[in-house]
Amino acid sequence: MALGLLLILLSCALFNNWWLLFVMAFYFLSPIPTMFANKIDEHRQNASFGLSGGDTSGVRDAGNFMSAFLLVSGFSFPLALLRGDVVEGAAAGMACAGGIVCFLSLAVYAKRYSNNDSAGAF
Prior knowledge:
Blueprint: H1 2-15, H2 23-29, H3 32-47, H4 58-83, H5 89-112
Helix pairs in contact: 1-5, 2-4, 3-4, 4-5
Keywords: Membrane, Transmembrane, Transmembrane helix
Subcellular location: Membrane
Membrane topology: Multi-pass membrane protein
């Protein structure tokens, strides 16, 4: 995660254009809808005593959709700035590379610590 954020900061500092700093908001906001949706779905499954028929719910699907929207926005924002001639190509490339590193580290963290039997996990 630190390497991805370093790439974002370097893409801003080296090219003296700080618009790409807004990309970090997408990285910090992207896992939040999924976390909330999973927690809401867990409480709903506990309240129904496991009588729900499907494996997934609409709440979980909506959380995954919002997280995917933020993930795509994290990559499309530097490209939109590049298309509008606001940033240079190397800066947009560094921002996208930083996004790849950030999102992969978040995915590995989520996969590693996603055990269903932990009571204190958010």
